[in-house]
């Protein structure tokens, strides 16, 4: 009796919440749902086998909202109705996506658990069932309700087109994205020797001259800077969470036109051979299996340097290159050592261990960084030594505190990859010119699980 009453109350709540709101039901064009259709959405969702079993075990529940679900090729985006125009992911939904009404069902008061179900009213069945899982709105996770944005968050606005002018009237184009509101941009520059000028085109058509701040020679990625303020930026996500089969989206400029390309992770730790040695990148695939290498090359023309985002709209990688013979595509994950260090000069931060008193805890196959201060004008340099069976040195770099005064002081970073489980040590000695007597020594304990 109590459960039946809850259903009736839930239907009433949804009808009140969504009265007069528009929606596109399984189509690309929006349509308004009638009160009867809204009630039908709830009825179909509650009668799915997953929801029925879950609610029978939980008891009381409530329908918290009727939302929109965009579904395309296995990828889905969920929006509360009030957030359709203010969600950054909304701008990443491709035109081919189908839209469906759906509900969020939740139970609990202290720890809230929820389920999200999207419905196709034409066939009367659920097309998406997610959960149950802990809700982000649980009181123990957010003491206060998360504030709603007052303006459209950045997504499309943070993607830029980079035009390169070289000597001899040669030109080039690449994609890029803004990493700091004062004009730092990550992009792809295949060469800088004959580079005469750079121009950045924003989403609204404004153009700015740009200067190169720093480069990562192995990957040809670069940090450039424009003189502008209050620019939209993108957030960085967890690259370490990438898995084979995961769906991503490349956002950038293809042949000078803005667009988004669906990607799927093939190998999250692929050893790619480059002219400067082997580097570990993420191998991805795109489009139909029938596409040839030339078709893929044409699709990706100009996308190098573009942001690769996950379903949450977070940057997890940067587009790198396409093999012209096979059509295989590659991206650099955001935790790649060269990119991590490049981000430091692009307004980002390097996550590194600095205190030898704290044990470095990691897992086999994962990477970590150690960063120590050094004053280059004194001729000092840190030299590391480690057990090659336990860890491998991936790369090292020096990032000055002030890029305009590289000799005054900065941080010397060492990036390592854990190889096998066990306990080991990494010793770092500060020497004059890297070969003189030891000025200072630090030993880091590493525990690999």
Structure description:
- With 449 residues, this protein is mainly beta.
- The protein folds into 4 domains: 133 residues, no CATH class; 71 residues, Trypsin-like serine proteases (Thrombin, subunit H); 100 residues, Thrombin, subunit H (Beta Barrel), CATH 2.40.10.10; 99 residues, Immunoglobulin-like, CATH 2.60.40.
- Strands 8-9-10-13-12-11 form a 6-stranded antiparallel beta barrel.
- Strand 3 and strand 4 form a beta hairpin.
- Helix 1 packs across helix 2.
- The protein is globular and about 80 Å long.
Q: Point out poorly predicted stretches.
A: 1-25, 136-154
Overall helicity: 10-25%
Q: Biggest sheet: strands, sense, closure?
A: 6 strands, antiparallel, barrel
Average predicted confidence as pLDDT: 75
Number of strands: 26
What value does the Rg take, in angstroms?
A: 26 Å
Tell me the number of helical segments per DSSP (H or I, 4 or more residues long). 5
Spatial strand order of the main sheet = 8-9-10-13-12-11
The overall number of domains is: 4
- Which structural class fits the helix and strand makeup? mainly beta
Cα separation of the termini: 52 Å
Strand content: over 45%
Question: How does the overall form come out from the CA principal axes?
Answer: globular
């Amino acid at each position: 009796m109590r459960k039946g009453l809850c259903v009736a109350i839930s239907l009433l709540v949804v009808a009140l919440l969504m009265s007069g709101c528009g929606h596109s039901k399984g189509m690309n064009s929006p349509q308004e749902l009638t009160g009867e259709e809204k009630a039908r959405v709830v009825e179909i969702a509650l009668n799915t086998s997953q929801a029925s079993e879950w609610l029978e075990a939980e008891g009381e529940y409530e329908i918290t909202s009727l939302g929109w679900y965009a579904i395309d090729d296995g990828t889905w985006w969920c929006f509360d109705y009030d957030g359709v125009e203010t969600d950054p992911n909304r701008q990443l939904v491709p035109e081919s996506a189908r839209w469906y009404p759906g509900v969020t069902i939740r139970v609990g008061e202290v720890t809230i658990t929820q389920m999200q179900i999207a419905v196709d009213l034409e066939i009367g069945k659920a097309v998406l069932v997610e959960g149950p899982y802990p809700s982000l709105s649980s009181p123990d996770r957010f003491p206060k309700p998360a504030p709603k944005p007052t303006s459209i968050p950045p997504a499309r606005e943070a993607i830029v087109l980079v035009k390169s002018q070289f000597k001899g009237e040669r030109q080039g184009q690449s994609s890029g994205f803004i990493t700091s509101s004062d004009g730092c941009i990550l992009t792809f520059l295949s060469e800088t020797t004959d580079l005469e000028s750079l121009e950045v085109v924003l989403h609204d058509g404004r153009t700015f001259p740009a200067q190169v701040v720093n480069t990562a020679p192995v990957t040809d990625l670069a940090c450039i800077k424009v003189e502008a303020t209050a620019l939209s930026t993108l957030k960085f996500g967890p690259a370490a969470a990438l898995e084979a089969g995961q769906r991503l989206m490349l956002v950038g400029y293809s042949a000078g036109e803005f667009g988004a390309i669906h990607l799927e992770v093939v190998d999250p730790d692929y050893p790619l051979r480059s002219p400067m040695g082997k580097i570990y990148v993420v191998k991805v695939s795109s489009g139909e299996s029938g596409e040839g290498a030339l078709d893929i090359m044409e699709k990706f023309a100009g996308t190098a340097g573009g942001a690769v985002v996950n379903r949450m709209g977070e940057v997890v990688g940067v587009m790198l290159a396409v093999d012209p013979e096979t059509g295989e595509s590659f991206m650099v994950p955001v935790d790649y050592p060269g990119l991590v260090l490049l981000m430091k000069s692009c307004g980002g931060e390097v996550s590194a261990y600095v205190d030898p008193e704290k044990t470095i805890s990691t897992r086999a196959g994962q990477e970590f960084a150690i960063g120590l201060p050094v004053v280059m004008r004194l001729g000092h340099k840190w030299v590391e030594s480690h057990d090659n069976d336990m860890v491998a040195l991936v790369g090292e770099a020096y990032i000055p505190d002030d890029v305009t005064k590289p000799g005054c002081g900065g941080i010397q970073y060492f990036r390592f990859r854990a190889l096998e489980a066990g306990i080991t040590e990494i010793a770092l000695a500060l020497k004059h010119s890297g070969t003189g007597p030891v000025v200072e020594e630090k030993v880091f304990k590493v525990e690999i699980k």
